[in-house]
Amino acid sequence: MASIQVDHHKCDLCGTCINVCPFNAIHKENGRITIDAACKLCRQCIKACPQGAISLSQRKKSVDKSQWRGILVYAEYVNHSLHPVTIELIGKASELAEKTHMPVYVLLIGSQVKTAAVSLLPYGVDKIFVYDHEALEHFRVDTYAQVFESLINEIKPSVVLVGGTSIGRSLAPRVAVRFKTGLTADCTTLDIKDNSDLVQIRPAFGGNIMAQIVTPHTRPQFATVRYKVMDKAKIVPIRGNIIEKKVDNQLLRSSIHVIRSTQKEKLPSITEAEVLVVAGQGIKAKEDMKVLEQLAQLLGGQLACTRPIVEKGWCDYTKQIGLSGRTVKPRLIITCGVSGAIQFTACMNTAECVVAINTDENAPIFEIAHYGIVGDLYDIVPKLVKEMEGGSCYAV
Amino acid sequence: MNTIVCIKQVPGTTAVDIDPDTGVLKRDGIDSKMNPYDLYALETAFRLKEKLGGKITVLTMGPPQAEAIIKEAYMMGADEGYILSDRRFAGSDVLATSYTLAQGIQQIGDYDLIICGKQTTDGDTAQVGPAIAEHLKIPHVTWVRTIEKADTSGIVVEQNMADSYEVVWLSYPCLITVEKDIYTPRLPSYKKMLETKNRTIQYLDLNALSDTDENHYGLHGSPTQVEQVFQPQSRTEHIVWDSRKTDCVVQLHDLLSREKFIGGK
């Protein structure tokens, strides 16, 4: 039987569990407590039961963890360049590897990627495995997954880190399923235990909550991390080497045929901006975005927004910060009328300086803001813009 | 042309909180709805059916309350609905969820195309679609924003990648996840509601699946475990200015100058 068990001898039907269950999964039926499929195993009922009648049954055999060593980073090579998330993943991998005395491996797939491989050597990696073949020029999930799988079978890494990008989020689940192992998406914090269990923290349950997740019984442990979440790897004396792998035809089998690929026009991306001004639900009309745009320009930055603003069609989705948008790490971020839902804050709270303007002094954004302004953005922002344009009064 | 659309019931609100005194998760109300991204997956299926004929089956996994979203899909035009519901599915992570859905899909059988929304608004992982495809050993394409061509043998789709649009061809059976700008979803119709009032919803529990080993489902089939949940740490050092008490424009301007964002750069 699955999971949460109720000891009906101990249970006195007090109903505490029914009230604490956040998912309304617990009911009293025919004089017994029953738990339905809405249960998310959050274990709140176990903690709350005054009789100690609820428990979690776990029967799991673990793999031999000592057989799985190393932190493998998937180096995303797309449109003739490495995705910058790669350097960040290597930075995190080095940290995890140091703690557990494991090597750092890199997997690079593509066509004519040798220069890119060389460029990764100074970041403290031990081995870079390169699969270079013209048939691997375009990302196709089946061929890439086959290559990925064959390398994992060969080197047996304990941890696999993949960027939370368009490609990574399509590729990682396929490879993780092949090994019947766990994959935790969009981790915001990663650490490792002495027994090599990866400690993965991410926002969960669609709410204002963080979950700490482990993959205790299977290997490898897959995690994806968004761009701009981790710090870049530092340059250190080169100690590793590049291993060019033969690409068997077997690995190139594919039922996906790429017809054409069109480059998007390179618009300035909010993920690269040093300064961001963010429009939130406090904005009442589309034309009011203008003054925020102005502020952004005066600061040499860009305008970004939250999900509701995109849904209203006032801003392009490429400007959206949040779990369903982009993750940013600017030097300065000024949020205007943003309440601060975790889906938003999880993707910007590593900014060096967070300034929040909101009328509601209880808005969660003030908990993460370094500088909070309780006030009306319609009052403050236009005055600030005027001040900056005038440029005299308070300027240095 | 038979299409299966995977849909999910998600909380109508994201207001989940932890009681600071008891550490208990609080969720106000039981308000729930269909994952908004799934509406685009459904609409894609309707458009393809209008062109190529066939049948649209919707599949969800969840408690019996999730019937509501199957009924909603019926009101939009879906032909058949299945719900995977069993206490033994509880606590499923990505691997177990995708496995259960793949098992359900095999029970439904006879399909050409599987369509999923690009992600859910509660989990936000975007992983279940690709994982289903892997269990079924069929190809997949994510982030589809345009269907360029579809006939009875395969489909040409345009994928929205970070820096490019990739147009690819896939033969059936295959799985796609669709972006929200693909089509505008139709509204549920009152007429269809009347028509489908008595249409059944088929339940699949663990015993109805071809793999009945309960170690492959729910908690036991889930390699990841939630060790603990907690509220994100708030930064301790922060300064708040109240516009009723101080001139915030002055404060902000000073701050921006001090931090060298304006002025003598």
Would you kindly provide a written description of the structure presented here, covering whatever features stand out?
The complex is a heterodimer of chains A (about 400) and B (about 260). Chain A is an alpha/beta fold and about 400 residues long. Chain A is about 25% helix and about 25% strand. Chain A has helices spanning about 15-20, 45-50, 85-100, 115-120, 140-155, 170-180, 290-300, 305-310, 340-345, 365-370, 375-390, and strands spanning about 5, 25-30, 30-35, 55, 70-75, 75-80, 80, 105-110, 125-130, 160-165, 185, 190, 200-205, 210-215, 220-225, 240-245, 255-265, 275-280, 300-305, 330-335, 355-360, 370-375. The N and C termini of chain A lie far apart (about 70 Å). Chain B has six helices and 15 strands. Chain B has helices at about 35-50, 65-75, 95-110, 130-135, 190-195, 250-260; strands at about 1-5, 10, 15-20, 25, 30-35, 55-60, 80-85, 115, 140-150, 155-160, 165-170, 175-180, 200-205, 225-230, 240. In chain B, strand 9 (about 140-150) and strand 10 (about 155-160) form a beta hairpin. The termini of chain B are far apart. In chain B, about 50% of the residues are buried. Chains A and B meet through helix 2, helix 5, helix 6, strand 11 and strand 13 of A and strand 3, strand 4, helix 3, helix 4 and strand 9 of B.
